[in-house]
Every structure is written in structure tokens, then in C-alpha cells.
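Exam revision sheet. Question 4 asks you to relate a sequence to its structure. Input first:
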Amino acid sequence: MTGGSPRGNIAGLHSTGDRGPPPEGAPIPLPESEPVERLSTHVLDVSAGKPAEGIPVVLVRDTDQAVLGRGTTDADGRVARLNDEPIPPGDVALTFDVDAYMTRTHGTVFHPRITVHVRLDGHRAHYHLPVLAGPFSHTTYLGS
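Answer key, C-alpha cells:
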């Protein structure tokens, strides 16, 4: 990213104002965080070896449980954008309601809802959260 944003700009990582450079050995302050433009997700059914279509996903802010976005996974198991508006940095939760999908596809489910709490630090414009799920387990990671 270029322009006025500190994302990806090593030279603009800190501003010391009128105080001059930080003392030798002092930690370098991180840039001011910015709102997150897009949060996407992807659900893969690891037991069936295919994308999980039709999973409802809700995004909420942890502090007050305000709904920040909703979506349903498409034929590729993706929700390209969960949020309608930029998200201020902070802790959020994504809840995936896998009950109907897992019951229909596998005849059973142990985790009917998968809730993942993540911290959006605002140092990325886009966060991608893939979920690998089956009827008895799930895992997730920060994607690209």
C-alpha cells in the first residue's frame, strides 16, 4: 500500500513529534492503527474434502456484542466480505452456525456452532479467517 497510510511503510513506523528519535535500545512505537476495511472467511469441510456451502456467519464486537456483519458461505465456502463498514481495531467474534450443514452432510455434529475470537489490531486492511471443520473438530488460522 502506498500513500499516506503507515501500513507496509517501514520509514513511517513511528512519529516522535518534537521529542526527537527514541533513545538507543528503546522499543519502536507501532503506527497508529487504522480501521479494518474487510474481514473475509472461508469454511472447508475436512471430512468431505470440499468447501462448506450455506454456513451462516455472524461477526460481533466483543465489548458490546454489536453485530458488525453477517454472511453465508457461497459454493466455494467463502464469505468475501463480512463487514459493511470499516471495523475499528479491537476484539471481535465470528460465529459459524455449522449445525444444519454438518447434520445434513455427515448425519451428526459435535460442535453445532464454532465461535472464534480474534483481535484486529488495525495493522492490516484485510483479515482473512479460514476455518477447517468436520463433524467432530475444527481449527482456524490467520490467512492471507
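Marking note for examiners. The chain has one domain: 37-140.
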